[in-house]
Every structure is written in structure tokens, then in C-alpha cells.
Automatic annotation (TrEMBL):
InterPro entries: GLTP_sf (IPR036497), Glycolipid_transfer_prot_dom (IPR014830)
Keyword annotations of the record: Transport
Protein name per Swiss-Prot or TrEMBL: Glycolipid transfer protein domain-containing protein
Domain Glycolipid transfer protein: 20-172
Claim: Transport is one of the keywords in the record: yes
Gene Ontology terms for molecular function: ceramide 1-phosphate binding; ceramide 1-phosphate transfer activity
PANTHER family found in the cross-reference section: GLYCOLIPID TRANSFER PROTEIN-RELATED, PLECKSTRIN HOMOLOGY DOMAIN-CONTAINING FAMILY A MEMBER 8
Gene Ontology, cellular component aspect: cytosol; membrane
Length: 218
């Protein structure tokens, strides 16, 4: 049986901000929410934030599915109507959803690198890899957008990070010793996710947001 990651729809292959279809964005994001929801209680805040942001985008999208077919159209519509800074807007939802997906992408990247290193001669699996991965991913993504209070909450949450064995078991539907299979599914999922959120980031940059996009990886 595929891992929970392997059961989710991959993010679409796109190369331009004119190719970000709102429905596709939302559908793929719900797969990411399902993954995060299965990772353990330490990720419940991330899951809830992502789900809340999906709902913000969908609420706006469903007011005019044809006119807001592309995410670019949604952002332009709310900007023209001066709704884009409203916390409940689809724009704010999409922005923070993008940031959450960037965080997930970097968590996966860090876990993949640790697992690959553990397979090298003399290497071994690190039980604390999840905490290290989340810390590194947070520093590369979300920390720059959070105030001090939010950073302290996240820091406290990191102390509750599951052991690597626990996370791998959770993602394998409760089956133990499936690390290799889970990581392979993670590799397949992470690559299109990274490419996709880079283009979404470029869309926000075109609307004068100062977000830094993820670095492409080989």
C-alpha cells in the first residue's frame, strides 16, 4: 500500500503564473493538508492554518468560478476591490497557504537529505531528524513572516516533534519499518511541490509582495 503521501494527488506541472488554476491549487493543497494531518499532533497547528487558508481561497473562488478560474484573476479582483489586505480575503489565504506549503516542502527536503545520508557508509538514522528538519525548514521559510510571539509558540511546538520512527510509521498507515518506501514517496511528492510553489511565489512577487521564493533543487 502506498504511504499517505503516495496516495495524494501531485501538484501540477506549470511554468508560468498564467497556468495556476485556482481549483487545481486548492485540490492539491487539500492533499498536503491530509499529509500534514497524518504526521502527528505536533503538526496540528500547521494543518489547521493550512486548512483555514484553503477555506479563505475557496470562499472567494466560489463567488465566481469562471471569472476567478486562475489564481492571478482572484488576486487581481481583490486588489481592484481593495479586499486583498483583509485577513479573510482569498489573497491573504493564498499567500499564507503558499508559505505553509513552502514550509512543508523544506521539511520534506531536510528529511530526504537525512535519510539519504543515513544510507551512506558509516551513516545511521537520526531519531531526532524530524525536530532538526522542522527547525531548519522554519528558519528557511516561515520565521521571517512571524512576530516574536509566534516564533516562541513554534519553538515550543518543536519540542514536541515526533521521533523519526514515529513519523515514518504514521505516514505508512501505522506500519513499522517502511522508512524507505515513505521517503521514496516523499521524493516523488516534493519535487513538483517545490516547482509549483516557486511559480506561485512568482505570482505574488508580480503583485509586489516581497516573499523570497524557494531555491530550486536538483
Amino acid at each position: 500500500m502506498p504511504s499517505i503521501i503516495g496516495q495524494q494527488k501531485l501538484f501540477p506541472t506549470i511554468s508560468s503564473i498564467d497556468e495556476i488554476v485556482t481549483e487545481d491549487f486548492l485540490e492539491a493543497a487539500m492533499g498536503a493538508v491530509a499529509i500534514v494531518g497524518s504526521m502527528g499532533s505536533q503538526f496540528s497547528m500547521t494543518r489547521d492554518d493550512m486548512l483555514g487558508n484553503v477555506k479563505k481561497v475557496r470562499t472567494k473562488y466560489e463567488t465566481d468560478k469562471k471569472g476567478l478560474h486562475l489564481l492571478k484573476d482572484l488576486l487581481q479582483n481583490e486588489k481592484a476591490n481593495k479586499e486583498d489586505k483583509n485577513d479573510k480575503s482569498g489573497t491573504v489565504g493564498a499567500l499564507w497557504l503558499k508559505r505553509g506549503l513552502e514550509y512543508l516542502c523544506e521539511v520534506f527536503w531536510e528529511l530526504i537529505q537525512e535519510h539519504v545520508a543515513s544510507k551512506q557508509p558509516g551513516g545511521k538514522s537520526d531519531s531526532g531528524a524530524v525536530k532538526a528538519a522542522c527547525k531548519a525548514a522554519y528558519e528557511k521559510t516561515l520565521t521571517k513572516y512571524h512576530n516574536m510571539a509566534s516564533r516562541m509558540v513554534v519553538k515550543g511546538g518543536l519540542m514536541l516533534s515526533p521521533y523519526k520512527e514515529t513519523l515514518m510509521t504514521n505516514l505508512a498507515h501505522g506500519e513499522k519499518d517502511k522508512d524507505d518506501e515513505v521517503i521514496e514517496d516523499m521524493k516523488v511528492y516534493e519535487k513538483p511541490l517545490r516547482a509549483y510553489v516557486i511559480v506561485v511565489c512568482q505570482l505574488f512577487q508580480s503583485f509586489d509582495y516581497k516573499d523570497e521564493c524557494l531555491t530550486p533543487q536538483p
